[in-house]
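hey can u run this one w/ iron/sulfur cluster bound, need the structure tokens asap thx
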Amino acid sequence: MEQNGGAMNEHDTTPVLPGQPLLRNQDRPGHREPHAHATEQPFHYPLEREFIEPDWTRLPGYRDVTKEQWESAQWQRAHTIKNLKELKAAFGPHLTDELATDLQRDMLERATMSMLVPPQMINTMDERDLYRDPVRRYMAPALTDRQVEWPSHPYATRDSLHEADMWAVEGLTHRYPTKVLAEILPTCPQYCGHCTRMDLVGNSTPTVAKYKFELKQPDRLEMMLDYLRRTPSVRDVVVSGGDVANMPAKRLEEFVSGLMDIPNIQDIRLATKALMGLPQHFLQTEVLESMERLGGKARERGVSIAVHTHVNHANQLTPLVAKATNYFFEFGFRDVRNQGVLLRGVNTTPKDLLNLSFTLLDRCRILPYYFYMCDMIPNSEHWRTAVWEAQALQHALMGYLPGFATPRIVCDVPFVGKRWVHMVEEYDREKGISFWTKNYRTGIEYDDPEALRRRYPYYDPIYTLPESGQGWWREHTRELLPAS
Ligand code: SF4
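ok here u go:
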């Protein structure tokens, strides 16, 4: 019963207007004529991309690499790309001189993270168009990717979320009432250009001298456990870094097992991008055995343990990622969830986000949980989106995925925490300033009577503003910022 793309009333040629019920056949009042069917949608499902491990031997640097080598975590770590020379060796002539110079200039003038890309991730880049490749754009940024007039927002800062300001002990951020973030180490098997912990994580770059933990790791970890024993209002610990894949499996197990021994800890989440960037790590026997023991102890103690990973583009998901993920379910982990980051030029179209979300869900059984707006760290303007853009993307995602797997797009507002992008309290679109409120005190506001009444600002990238708004920032930036 459909004509010209619209539903019709039964035995009638009058089209039904949107929102009006179908008129029923009066002779057969109980009868319902089925008329719904699949139709063209803004996003096409099923997925079109073939789900296979890309053939690494197509790349000049990996021509002779065997399957056994490729699947070895040791081989992957030993051949992780750390500089332009190694990148050139991997891609050969696919990496043009023009792009190589562009990357080199970025490393010297703008990069907040040093280069560190495992072969597994290199293999998910499209060597035929490296300039436009989404994975290259965030793992190996080029100078010409960045914004020229405003490479950084005037209010961009290192540690833009003030995580260190909220340390209860070194590396343990107590920002929310019932949960904490434990930064157990400052390194990862891969370094992402947009890393929000650029203040702390990774090696120093020509433009950023990194903060170094002052306490020894075993002491820090013991102090974290001790704080949690003394703080029964905390029930949930995100064990992060850095990336937990860089901690020897036995030491990680001891710490996580120690958390499970604390009666108030009910939820533990292990944060690792390496599940995607270096799945080989999680396929090593000693790591598998360790995760299996943790899954077993969690079940015994009635604690939920889950993995949180960080995938920003569907191309990065391969059968090896699915294989490593599957073990966590076998070991009784409650879930594996993805927390991606919205990055312009990488994933800020509805198609990119839906392709990624469906690939996570269908191919890897990973829950598309959050997409964070890229934080206001230095030199991130070209990746960042405005709040209204994030709201439009959230709208475009609704209704395609199951409700439980529809990712929430969130803005991590400094001194507030994650807010769903539609929760903005007030929004000056001309100047790109949004205002947010909160319903709890962070760990440093226990004696601040204004904390729950204050409105906290967040800033859109200036180049996304109307000309009048851009002009306002050009005129006022100097007077707004504290004199240095
Ligand atoms: S894996 Fe996470 S912590 Fe490590 S560099 Fe990437 S974003 Fe930063």
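The CA atoms of residues 292 and 331 lie 5 Å apart. anyway lmk if its weird
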